[in-house]
């Protein structure tokens, strides 16, 4: 597992992320390459198509998605809670702000 110490939130807003700290694979790769190249322009260049995709989708009816963590914490999660004890425990940890 790779962990980035970054306070960014995902720009991939048309997809529901598991937690507020999750990034897409493309965003992680862009950050990694930016760090390795020591050039912030790399990240901007790589993420430009993602931003364009999300903008296009939002202009044509897509909705901004909040993370599952956000939805659960704010009582907005509409799906039934899982019956699997392991999955239920993970959701409880999300609600209680415990790092998984």
Radius of gyration: 16 Å
Note the overall shape. flat
Let me know the average pLDDT. 85
- Helix segment tally: 4
Helix/strand order, N-terminal first: HHHH
Termini Cα gap: 12 Å
Structural class based on helices, strands and sheet pairing: mainly alpha
Helix content: 40-55%
Q: Tell me the fraction of residues in β-strands, as a range.
A: under 5%
TL;DR?
By secondary structure, the chain is mainly alpha-helical.
Describe the structure.
The chain has 100 residues and is an all-alpha fold. It has 4 helices and no strands. Helix 1 packs antiparallel against helix 2. The longest helix has 20 residues, at 40-59.
Map the helices and strands:
Blueprint: H1 25-37, H2 40-59, H3 68-73, H4 85-95
Helix pairs in contact: 1-2
Q: Tags for this entry?
A:
100 residues; mainly alpha; flat
